[in-house]
Amino acid sequence: MKHGSHCTINDSEDELDGQVEPYHLMEKRNLEKSILLELEREHHLKVQEEVRSKLAALEVGHQNEIQRTISAFARLQKYAESRKEIDRRLDVHFQRRIAEVLDKHLSMVQRDHEQKSQIVERRIRDDAALEEAKRKEQAIKEEKLRQERARQEAEARQKEAAKLAAETRKTAFEAAQKEAAEKEAAEKEAAKLREAAASQSSQNSQNNNAGIKVFADKYALEAESRRRALVHNQVPENIHLRKEFAKYDRQIAKSISKLMPTTDSVRSRASELIKALDGQDCPRPIACCLFANKIISIVKSRNTKDKTFGNLAFACGYVMLLVTNQVPDAMDYLLAEFNRVCIYTVPKHLHALNAQARNRDYYRLIGYQEENGQLESTESYLTYVVAYVKLYAAMIQTEIKGVRHPHGLAEGWKWLALFLNALPATTATACALHAFLKMAGFALHKKYGSQFLKILDVISRCFLPALKDQGNKMQSEAVNNLQNYLNDKIYLQEPEGQYLVQQLLSKELFM
């Protein structure tokens, strides 16, 4: 069958609808051709119907496939969301578990750290107690040896005196048989020998020297002499003027000049000074001497009448403790410098026996400063005495947990006993005593309790009455200061600027 005359199904439908039927009516065709045409038309209709049914089936299948795809995608999204929710819950659960495990671990670490810290602290306390016991035992042994040496020396002096006296008597007996002139000379010589022997056997810590009487305990004078000799033997004179040490002098001075009564400043300055004293280019004795001179000269560079000077003195005390703990040699140089600038830190008092002895040299000897050929006033002198003693007292009462003090409260207690036993009641000694109690009284009372109260009772019964007998303006002020200290029980009040710095330093150094 030829399809050249029928291009499409639509063409056949047009022919059937509008053209074919009239054509058959107008033209005569044979039966076969008519049948063929009919068959062809039916075939086309059948094919068209089949195509339509297949297209409809394909359309339905396509729509069903789309619905299945949409349904599957919806199920997939729902599944993904459910998985996300499950993962989120699992993640929260795991994070909670991890946080719990981490918290338990940190708690165990902290507990372990605390236990180790307690063990270390207990070990430090035990070591400190053992060291203190050893030191006390050594001190007792040294004291016994000193007493034994003193006894032996006294016995030797007595024997020597007896020998000299015997020789003198023998000489005098032999000289009696000679001429009067020789007898007189012999008697004079014997008298000189007896006087020398008596002077040697009765010599003690109170000396008369060019009209000046020294009030001090023998132990304190020996310690002062030992420190002075240490500086004299180890440190050349005028080290501040030597170019080779100028760098270290400026470095130490700069560090100390920046000291403020704050924890950060104390820690920073102490670290800088320890580093400076450990330098390889400067000999240790010279570095220690420079440090001692600069830290104590802060009295001259700052306003000692300012109320904040007490806070600064406590800050200096902490710096001195931290430095000497790492550089123990520095403490002897500090004490030597204290003794040089203020005799009451020994403690020692020089008394002029007469007006002739009360000259310019005497005032220089007790610590008066001279400027432009003029000595400073007594008021200025006492101001500096108070400042130096405050600085010394701040140093001896300073305590930091776990840090051993080479010159601590025990030395302060000894200083107070030597002061009251050996020194007279004067305006200068009263000012020094009040300054010391104001800075260290709280710590001494806290440690020694009733024994410290006995010391205060001695001041009230003995020192103050003797001081009142002098009756001058400055003495009256000194009496009032001491009387108010006792009456108001100032020793029960913690000094301002001392406790907070101590606590912060303890935490920062040992946590």
UniProtKB/TrEMBL annotation:
<feature type="compositionally biased region" description="Basic and acidic residues">
    <location>
        <begin position="135"/>
        <end position="195"/>
    </location>
</feature>
<keyword id="KW-0811">Translocation</keyword>
<dbReference type="GO" id="GO:0051028">
    <property type="term" value="P:mRNA transport"/>
</dbReference>
<dbReference type="Pfam" id="PF07817">
    <property type="entry name" value="GLE1"/>
</dbReference>
<feature type="region of interest" description="Disordered">
    <location>
        <begin position="135"/>
        <end position="209"/>
    </location>
</feature>
<dbReference type="GO" id="GO:0005643">
    <property type="term" value="C:nuclear pore"/>
</dbReference>
<keyword id="KW-0906">Nuclear pore complex</keyword>
<feature type="compositionally biased region" description="Low complexity">
    <location>
        <begin position="196"/>
        <end position="209"/>
    </location>
</feature>
<keyword id="KW-0653">Protein transport</keyword>
<keyword id="KW-0813">Transport</keyword>
<dbReference type="GO" id="GO:0015031">
    <property type="term" value="P:protein transport"/>
</dbReference>
<dbReference type="InterPro" id="IPR012476">
    <property type="entry name" value="GLE1"/>
</dbReference>
<keyword id="KW-0509">mRNA transport</keyword>
<protein>
    <recommendedName>
        <fullName>mRNA export factor GLE1</fullName>
    </recommendedName>
</protein>
<dbReference type="InterPro" id="IPR038506">
    <property type="entry name" value="GLE1-like_sf"/>
</dbReference>
<comment type="similarity">
    <text>Belongs to the GLE1 family.</text>
</comment>
<keyword id="KW-0539">Nucleus</keyword>
